[in-house]
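Our consortium's second objective concerns turning raw sequence data into structural hypotheses that experimental partners can test. To show how far this objective has progressed, the report includes one record in full. It was chosen at random from the queue rather than selected for favorable results. The single chain below, 398 residues long, was entered without modification.
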Amino acid sequence: METGALSDLRVIETGQLLAGPFCGQLLADMGAEVIKIEPPGTGDPMREWGREKSGGQSLWWPVVARNKKSVTINLREAQGQQLARELITGADVFIENFRPGTVERWGLGYDALAALNPRLVMTRVTGFGQNGPYSSQPGYGAIGEAMGGLRYIVGDPDRAPSRTGISIGDTLAAMFACVGTLSALHARERTGRGQIVDSAIYEAVLGIMESLIPEYAVTGYIRERTGAVLPNVAPSNIYPTRDGLMVLIAANQDTVFARLAVAMRQPGLARDTRYATHTARGDNQEELDTLIARWTATLDAAPLHELLLEHSIPTGRIYRAPEMLADPHFTAREAIVRVPHAVFGELPMQGVFPKLSDTPGSVRWAGPTLGEHTDEILATVLGRTPAEIQTLRNTNSI
């Protein structure tokens, strides 16, 4: 069923692990037909990834491969390369995240493909980009997070740099790749030509680092690890409650802090020269956090949350998966959807974001089994007969 804003697009994905495939997931969520090429017999390593497995099967794969069609093609063999070439040159977008030069050795470089399909958009996701002295180096997400500046500032100041609990570098590179892909498709409407989208993991991380570079260039300031707070942004922290839970309060704007002072029954705090302005609160951040923590510790989390909302103060609990699954707002917004799965039954996973009013995306099926759509795609897209498909299978081309 055609659904979503991108339902008229065909995407060929040869990426593996996360940086390329998450870009493919985003496009598929919005309706694109994403045909994922996987190595015969083994498939994408993501089929094995994830902290927890059930019955030996990955619980990550059904998410990152959702809405995609799996086709097995041996890209290291001439017949397989020809099949891939036919699929790609009949598509709108080609996603790959191999080391630079790999697809060129397979005869799938941009120049060769664009000669057959000038409208093709080729989206390339790598650690360091397609050129420059580091381009040939292996570059996983963790390396991009370190060199892009994120790893150094994550964690507590009294210990070594930490990392986020998700593969944020890969994900950011995939999101920038998706933005670039959609931009290139838009430009194609004017020019009639496709182009290369070059998304590097380290640059994707660097792209979200706010004012880190000009702060150093102009003032010599190097950002350091600050734990749970942002320096000079106060109050915005996690505070304890009487029943042993935690509540996040973000009241760093002057008017919001004044409302917090009223909720605390200490309205004079908003006029106190130590806390009256954004700059003053930043200068006295630790002292102010201690004062607020003493107050929150006298209340249980639920009534504290209600009191803060009554005063229009941004607040929230620290959620884990159980809280998300139980929250009525998540349910009302379909932030979590349940998708049929042959092994897991109704499998809950995150929904499609952002939400479009007229052409919304959707999760139409969970990640496919290896090669589930090989015969279908070779027959309907490339016109191969059952006998030809069997011959390809016999020669290990698919």
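The partners drew two points from this record. Residues 10-208+332-394 form a domain with the Rossmann fold fold (CATH 3.40.50.10540). The mean pLDDT is 94. Both points have been shared with the crystallography group to help prioritize constructs.
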